Amino acid sequence: MEAFKNTSSPKVMTIADLGCSSGPNTLVAVSDAIDAVESVCKELNQKSLPEIHIMLNDLPSNDFNGLIGSFEDFKRSHPCFISVAPGSFYGRLFPTQTIHFCPLFHMPPLAFSGSSGAPKTGLNKGNVSISKTSPPFVLEAYTKQFERDFSQFLKCRAEELIHDGCMVFTLVARKDEDPSVEGIYLHWELLAQALMDMASQGIVETEKIDSFNLPFYAPTSKEVKNAIKREGSFAIKSIRMFDVGWGEARDHACEHCKVEENATTAQITVKSMRAGSESLFVSHFGAEIMDELFERYSSLMEGYFSMYPDGGLTNICAFVQKIK
Amino acid sequence: MEAFKNTSSPKVMTIADLGCSSGPNTLVAVSDAIDAVESVCKELNQKSLPEIHIMLNDLPSNDFNGLIGSFEDFKRSHPCFISVAPGSFYGRLFPTQTIHFCPLFHMPPLAFSGSSGAPKTGLNKGNVSISKTSPPFVLEAYTKQFERDFSQFLKCRAEELIHDGCMVFTLVARKDEDPSVEGIYLHWELLAQALMDMASQGIVETEKIDSFNLPFYAPTSKEVKNAIKREGSFAIKSIRMFDVGWGEARDHACEHCKVEENATTAQITVKSMRAGSESLFVSHFGAEIMDELFERYSSLMEGYFSMYPDGGLTNICAFVQKIK
């Protein structure tokens, strides 16, 4: 809402939905954005609504054909123009100063850009991310990469947004400075354990595990704030942290994959994680072990959620406005 | 070239490529447009090139995934932003006054919008388009529909183009007032003959043929000029008619379908036509007769081209500029 009030009433309002995915929820999010523009216009007693141009972005590998097939129906109930702008949001996606509002509704755990993402391989033995057995420089390497990539993300959006343009993004975060004690890092630790169990039975080579690090990072609220301040293009209008409960996890999983009606939290979490990261594991470990890996992982996650029923994820939602 | 000189030097130049298709030639056309902008900027001694935003349009049924997969490579050699805007160009595709230049490189024989396109069924017996045995009102109905649809096309583009914005389009046309004597209409007459031959052998019902009319129209140069003047949004900067030779026919066919190295003109023409219109025939006559229909059509076309080696198509290329 606030995002629209802050931009001077334009004739055309361009909204760039980053990481739109291709599930049924993609256009629900767009619909929310359109409704918000309409209600603000009413509130401000504006006679005519701006034309709304939705630019949907995701990686070129996204299934855009499926998404495009649903545009005509959607436009009948929501008058707007919809285009698709494929590409990585760590690079420029739109011409300079052409975007009014940029929501990133479901940012996955921050994926590092390019192959340089994860720390040097072979030095984080038995882990696939930061864990309590990781040497200190692993956290340091991940943090540095986060700062570099997140800053690049902000810089690109600042170039694309109009003066006063706004951005809202939600990302998987952590509450504690020490990443090894909670949430997403414990999930990844269990994934490493599933792999190590398979290694102990000769199904996977230990060296393969040692040389693999997930290109994901879950920052603290302080890290996000500092990164935004350091980059300098945006003022933070609000930032809040919240736990993602069962319902949200299900909604998110439903976007990426079919989830059975009576699925457990563990099953939903694993399905969602598999949909989002399987290609990374396949290219490193081979497709043939995927079913077994994720079955073992699912069992470990069942145990985890029986001990920590609230052991879901933490998210940060930030609303920022361009200041220069 | 002229199109770029006529628009005041903007920071961002948005080029809407209508009917982009998904073949290898799609980005060749875009590349030509980018080169043209660059050479004009050099000619005008402009210090900095504008950012170029390419909006690729085609019907939602187009294979956009395939096209999108080639963007990254293309952008490496041609710095630009590329988006995809699916939809019918008989309706609005882009927000008001946001497009600088609108090329329509390969307009197919003008396809009527919606199902109301072709004349009332059952009154054009033994034909699938205008032919010498068609009653006069058939030409009249086709002409009216062309005027309505083409005017709608121009109106939408006029709303989308900036002041002074330009459009170039090429469409299949006819030289003679009487459509039954040349080019594309003779091609369609032979298609009707292939269907009637099948009807005489009981493979197709005659009523099915009588109730089918192709939603295509090939206007004369005069009709195009009059339609542009009547609609009123554009000034004609140039308009010319030209015959499409063997090379162009091959190029065009290559965009839509694989063509063998030693294919005859007839084979290429039929393949291209089949790719562009088969879905219309399938929904009316059923998929099962398609192979036989187009084989018979191909034989008739071989005969046609042996009699008229230059019996290709006529095109109109018009360059227009928005005047209000």
UniProtKB/TrEMBL annotation, chains A, B:
Alphabetized UniProt keyword annotations: Magnesium, Metal-binding
Pfam families xref list: Methyltransf_7
Ranges in coiled-coil conformation: none
GO molecular function, one term: metal ion binding
Gene3D superfamilies, per database record: Methyltransferase, alpha-helical capping domain (1.10.1200.270), Vaccinia Virus protein VP39 (3.40.50.150)
Highest taxon of the lineage: Eukaryota
Keyword rRNA-binding applies: no
Protein name: Jasmonate O-methyltransferase-like
Species this protein is from: Dioscorea cayennensis subsp. rotundata
The organism's taxonomic lineage, starting at the top: Eukaryota, Viridiplantae, Streptophyta, Embryophyta, Tracheophyta
